[in-house]
Design the sequence.
């Protein structure tokens, strides 16, 4: 595995050309929807001439294709935005470019980030980096796979309910979902505005710290961003109190996933930390909350795709109502439509109180339960998902089964907490398994430092 540092001080043009060659050699994984070769080479030459400098000068990276970026269309893996060329760049990409990093391509995802396997992409699924018959996880499947295949040393993703952590765990890379508001969402196609966050995939924790340090911070263009609090920590004190969440370790969880999580707990103990079992009783209800609140927000965020202002428009002569209907029917994938329907339903008069309001009240209880745990514990530990990567097609006919893969990632999302996926070995078939650390709001730097201290062991 290469590190960010391995790319620094080398010819930027060579870095870009070798990343692109590697991407082309690995086309069978379908991790990338487009390459931004022309623009990448222009920027590389500017780096090599000394016209562009910075902490990441000449380092190639990939962005999930729901980030607005120059050099290729921003499709969000949908037909709706198939030919949409970004008029501006997302703040996260701008900040990386300001440090000399070079985007070489745009990664596949579930259309509009709705999913956990990348099988909902309108352009076909991404394959797992360790087993091409299995899913990459999602929705940022492409970003995880390009990192795992060592095409680039880091990739950006978005995480609304697990979309960074799940594919990171399925592909054996580090995936960081920061505290809500840490990184600007400006210029990223919205999914659910109250849980969407921007984060990063890397092969090691130190690289994640470096990228987070660059992309974090207030953005006047995103009023939900927090004042920058992310300062990487050099050391971590021993004696941290870590709570192993009991509800994440039930018999429904794959035994090898449980075993790897317990091994990680033991490594924490060996490193001078205290690990105790804790309980988050409301965890059993978080999936229900999530699949009410998120579709509600999705249905309102996707209302803008009307075929009039931008994006796909159905062809032919028809009434306005038909135009809306056909555009949306043809531009969205089934999962997008399912969420629009559920979201409109739970927000409709008569059902709003019974579903949406109830889910928001339960969300407040979840936040309270987390806060109670964080009075006594610094960090919570559990698996990322109940299982390693499943087979392509295994869950596509049963949305509930697909949603169950999110059961351990949605709690941190609904509470806005920082969480990360850390590679913790593999099962007997060689499929990677990730463990999840969850921290208190704004404790991102501590969480990463803790993970790094174990990685260095
Ligand atoms: N798998 C989850 C979902 O389908 C998470 C998606 C995401 O984080 N973008 O909603």
Sequence:
């Amino acid at each position: 595995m290469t590190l960010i540092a391995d790319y620094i001080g080398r010819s930027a043009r060579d870095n870009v050309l070798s990343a692109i060659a590697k991407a082309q050699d690995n086309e069978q994984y379908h991790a990338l929807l487009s390459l931004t070769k022309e623009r990448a080479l222009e920027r590389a030459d500017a780096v090599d001439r000394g016209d562009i400098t910075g902490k990441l000068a000449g380092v190639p990276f990939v962005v999930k294709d729901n980030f607005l970026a120059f050099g290729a269309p921003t499709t969000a893996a949908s037909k709706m935005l198939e030919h949409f060329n970004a008029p501006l760049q997302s703040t996260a990409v701008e900040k990386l470019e300001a440090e000399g990093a070079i985007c070489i391509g745009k990664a596949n995802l579930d259309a509009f980030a709705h999913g956990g396997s990348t099988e909902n992409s309108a352009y076909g699924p991404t394959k797992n980096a360790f087993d091409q018959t299995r899913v990459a996880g999602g929705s940022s499947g492409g970003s995880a796979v390009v990192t795992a295949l060592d095409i680039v040393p880091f990739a950006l993703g978005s995480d609304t309910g697990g979309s960074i952590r799940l594919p990171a765990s399925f592909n054996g890379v580090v995936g960081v979902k920061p505290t809500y508001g840490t990184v600007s969402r400006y210029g990223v196609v919205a999914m659910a505005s109250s849980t969407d966050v921007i984060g990063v995939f890397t092969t090691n924790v130190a690289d994640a710290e470096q990228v987070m340090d660059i992309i974090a911070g207030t953005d006047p263009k995103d009023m939900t961003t927090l004042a920058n609090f992310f300062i990487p920590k050099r050391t971590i004190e021993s004696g941290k109190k870590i709570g192993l969440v009991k509800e994440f370790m039930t018999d429904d969880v794959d035994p090898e996933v449980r075993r790897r999580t317990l091994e990680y707990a033991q490594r924490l103990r060996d490193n001078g930390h205290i690990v105790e079992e804790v309980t988050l009783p409301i965890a059993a209800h978080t999936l229900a909350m999530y699949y009410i609140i998120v579709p509600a927000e999705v249905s309102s965020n996707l209302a803008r795709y009307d075929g009039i202002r931008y994006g796909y428009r159905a062809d032919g002569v028809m009434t306005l109502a038909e135009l809306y209907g056909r555009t949306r029917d043809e531009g969205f994938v089934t999962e997008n439509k399912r969420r629009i329907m559920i979201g409109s339903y739970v927000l409709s008069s008569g059902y709003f109180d019974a579903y949406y309001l109830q889910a928001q009240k339960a969300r407040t209880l979840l936040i309270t339960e987390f806060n109670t745990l964080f009075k006594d514990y610094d960090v919570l530990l559990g698996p990322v998902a109940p299982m390693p990567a499943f087979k392509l097609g295994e869950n596509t006919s049963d949305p509930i089964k697909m949603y169950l893969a999110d059961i351990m990632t949605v709690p941190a999302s609904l509470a806005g907490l920082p969480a990360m996926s850390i590679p913790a070995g593999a099962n007997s078939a060689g499929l990677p398994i990730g463990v999840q650390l969850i921290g208190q709001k704004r404790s991102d730097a501590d969480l990463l430092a803790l993970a790094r201290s174990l990685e260095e062991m």
Summary: Residues 92 and 350 are 40 Å apart (CA to CA). The first strand starts at residue 32 and ends at 35. Residues 1-457 form a domain with the Amidase signature (AS) enzymes fold (CATH 3.90.1300.10). The mean pLDDT is 97.
